[in-house]
Amino acid sequence: MIKILELFGGIGAPRKALINLGINHKCIDYVEWQPNRVKAYNALYDHLHQPQDVRGWNLKPDILVHGSPCQDNSRGNIKRKGVAKDSRSQLMIETLRIIKEMGTWKPKVVIWENVKGVLDRNVIPIFNYYLQEMKNLGYTNSFDVLDARNFGIPHARERVFCISLLGNAMFDFSKLQHQPMRSINEFLEYGPNDNIPEQYLITVPSMLSKIKEFNPKPIGRYKRQLDVIENYCYTITERQDRCPNAGIIRLNQPQYRYLTERECWRLLGFNDEDFELMLKEFPTKEGKRNATLYALAGNSIVVQVLEAIFKVIINEDYGTELIADSSGQLQLVC
Q1: So what's the architecture of 2-177+301-333 in CATH?
Q2: Rg (CA), the chain
Q3: Structure pTM?
């Protein structure tokens, strides 16, 4: 049995990936400070976790997955703080502290995920510090930018994944199994001729004025526009009623609509059964969009990307063997 620890755990995409793969595992703990995310995780995986902070906390997992808050790394945030002392990007350093405080025992695999902006000049120093500290702790580091479109999901979501292995082996990203991108129509809840609930129709003048094909010339201070979804959506964030967003859907009549909450969950790799559980926890008001369900999806990792990573780890495809001893604890054999 693989023991996994999720820090900044969100709605548990790593856990979902392991379930989809049929891998025998145990989540020894999950750390997330936002109550809605904890509530969602508990509903999805039948747990009773409480909100908690990664600071002042540790446990001993085989695989540690963490995705520290991305807002201060994101290129979409015009006020991002980068490596400033009060930046949320600093929270990735808490994972280093947790590993150090484990003493001689260390996780065999550490997976870190974040936005591509972490590689920008004003943010990368903290990432370089993380890589050096992980090396000092006895890990090798490999990182790459992975796009969900290469793993079957029509969602242009590019994220940096750093895989750190204890010992001398290096994670080989070329071993990841890519999948053909599925049709966006498989993920849409409504077709162009369907009766679309009014709350998803774009009627606000300030949003209509930003539709790229409707108004080709950018309007406004930041020159941002709304893209129409053709073959794939753009990066899903916490909100869809702002510009830019994940893209909008063109209807047959001269009208456009937002992605629905269910569509966003599907495009993060979750199924309708998961979404129905969320509707029970966070009911949608009649005629309104559900901001909570959008936010929960927008903070997640695409499940299918994690599935591909776990397949390489579990299949021992990079020269490092992960085997369980009689107690179920994974051992590293180089």
Answers
A1: 3-Layer(aba) Sandwich (3.40)
A2: 20
A3: 0.87
Question: How far apart (Å, rounded) are the C-alpha atoms in residues 296 and 10?
Answer: 7
Instruction: Please state, in angstroms and rounded to a whole number, the distance separating the CA atoms of residues 45 and 69.
Output: 22
C-alpha span between 221 and 239 (Å, rounded): 20
Structure tokens that stand for 228 in this block: 């129409």
Per residue of the chain (334 residues), what is the pLDDT tens digit? 888 999 988 999 999 999 999 998 888 888 888 899 999 999 999 866 666 555 555 567 899 999 866 444 444 444 444 444 555 456 788 889 889 888 888 999 999 999 998 898 888 888 999 999 999 999 999 999 999 999 999 999 999 999 999 999 999 999 999 999 999 999 999 998 899 999 999 999 989 989 988 777 766 655 688 999 999 999 999 999 999 899 999 998 789 999 999 999 999 999 999 999 999 999 999 999 999 999 999 999 999 999 999 999 988 644 444 544 444 444 444 3
DSSP code at position 191:
-
